[in-house]
Amino acid sequence: AVSMIPQLIRPLSEGLQKVAIEELNEVPSRVESDVAALREWLQKQPHLCSCLDNQFLLSFLRGSKFSLEKAKQKIDRFYSLQPAIPEVFNEHRLADDPQVLEIIRMGVILRIPLDKDDVGPAVTIIRAGGYDLNKFKFQDIIRVGSMFGEIMMLEDDNASVSGYLEIMDMTGVTGANLFALQPQLLSKFSAYADEAMPTRQKGIHFINVPRAFEVGFKSLLGWFPGKVKERVSVSSDPEAIFERIAKHNLPKEYGGTKGTIQDIIASMEAKLSSYRSYFEESKHFGTNEKLRDEPALFKPEESHFGLDGSFRQLVID
Q1: In whole angstroms, what is the distance from residue 45 CA to residue 63 CA?
Q2: Pairing label, strands 109-112, 201-207
Q3: What angle do CA 172, 173, 177 make, to 5 degrees?
Q4: Between 184 and 225, whose confidence is greater?
Q5: For 69-98, what is each residue's pLDDT tens digit?
Q6: Which residues contact 231 (CB under 8 A, 6 or more apart)?
Q7: Is the pTM of this model over 0.90?
Q8: How far apart are the first and last CA of the chain?
């Protein structure tokens, strides 16, 4: 199962190319042969059926700072750990799934477009109070977020070079929303994102946190792995968002000047629809552990997931 292999590799902007060279060990003249080496290895793995698209492979190389061994391990985990999270990776993960479309149209997840010459991380706003708890579970929101995370891997150079920021807008969040957060799933999915996704998370910033929650909220952070914790901030200050994103990149509803939330929703819907065949094909990607030649590339102590794919809750101090 080989997906179409476009021969060209998308060139980076001058600013991002500089970051990639300095921070990710990228050697522009070697990128094509590095991608080819990773593809060749994947084609020889009897247990692994992977997307072989240039940009897909390149995002794993960048996410592994061009260590071929690390990139192999990450792609292997990217697919082999998905069955451990059936709440997210299931038959609804398709571009035309009615539930997925409904979540996009509610504007719960907003991808914020950056300026062409911006070298900072990609930015997503998640409006945690923006969905109907009787209709959706938090896992449904994470599923849609994970689909855009994958699109970001394939086409967002800011994300693949400089990582991504998540702004969690807690406006209108009630105790019921917090209760619906499925902390076990949240910690399982953050571990997956950390171990198996090539794009690096640069921060989660909770904004507009109702004052009453600020304290309880900080204790919720105990669920997150240590290095994730350092990247988290919690604020009830309505101005906090401007510390992270320039006003002119934000929609009107956030005090910015770039269109409206509705505009962002429309462009996200169009974007997802252009990936219809990718998500269709993805149903056939994955690992078959019975065919694995050698034991899994990772040492169990390096992972939150057991070799059988089970998730081990970390000890919370």
Answers
A1: 21
A2: unpaired
A3: 145
A4: 184
A5: 999 999 999 999 999 999 999 999 999 999
A6: 201, 202, 203, 204
A7: no
A8: 45
